Amino acid sequence: MTDDDRQLRDWLGRGRHFLITAESDDYPELLRELGDNPAALYVDGDRDVLQLPAIAIVGSRNPTRGGTSNAYEFARHLARSGFVIVSGLAQGIDTAAHQGALDVGGRTIAVLGHGMDSVYPASNRELAGRIAASGALVTEFPLGTPPRRENFPARNRIISGLSLGTLVVEAARRSGSLITARLAGEQGREVFALPGSIHNPLAKGCHQLIRQGAKLVESVDDILSELRPLATHLMQNQADDAASSERPARDQQYQLLLDALAYDPASAEELASRSGLTIGQVSSMLLILELEGEVESLPGGRFSLVSTK
Fold this sequence. Notes:
Layout: H1 3-12, E1 17-21, H2 29-32, E2 40-45, E3 54-58, H3 65-80, E4 84-87, H4 93-103, E5 108-111, H5 125-134, E6 136-139, H6 151-161, E7 165-168, H7 176-186, E8 190-193, H8 204-211, E9 215-216, H9 220-241, H10 247-261, E10 266-267, H11 268-275, H12 279-291, E11 295-298, E12 302-305
Parallel strand pairs: 3-4, 3-7, 4-5, 5-6, 7-8, 8-9
Antiparallel strand pairs: 1-2, 2-6, 10-12, 11-12
Helix pairs in contact: 3-4, 4-5, 6-7, 10-11, 11-12
């Protein structure tokens, strides 16, 4: 056994660490569709989160205050709507997107451009721990791989590949975020962009994307209207493929949520308190139940069972 083999064995033996190959049943379905999908993924955290409907949020490492706020708020609202937020753990927009999801109890995935035995940037070490606790850190690079510049375009294809769509918040005309957006388009995924001031250099990349056909976004509803049908299709395919042995645990959690919901409108926070489930679990299940026609979303972020009368 080589030193690399021992290092990998030791890593897999600690915590929720996984090595998922492209032949594995738990390999992400959206990544499986890609012609250049990674042969294997190293995962630290909840590997099941890789199968949930997700949206990527990317942008500048040096955003304006408004850009940071927009990334944070869009991530908050999208996570509360049941979507997993995918980004790259970089400073700036990536960090704001991860934090927005986590701060409402949602789930987020950070795709790394290096091996799992380090965190880059080091200033995000604590954030990486929070992400792994409720979502997942993911990389295709073996342990010991440093964060080389050439790794990040490859990392970006996984960010877009795991997601039903990619939202670019702020980006200059020459930006890694535009690479992610281009890859999303080539992968047949939706591309969204936030417009900005004509005087803001970090709006120019987003305006370029809009001229090229990206969907102009003014509110979260602009994204949800596009992605909900795609999420329905994704979850239906997974339901059709689900092994019967996996159903009892899932059904028990869903029954807890349905019992807590009844027909009285309630927020995700109220439902989490009643059911004993986490906000992240409740948000994801509400999305699935809404897509399946059992739950309806009401104004004010509240939910109710759909009446059968």
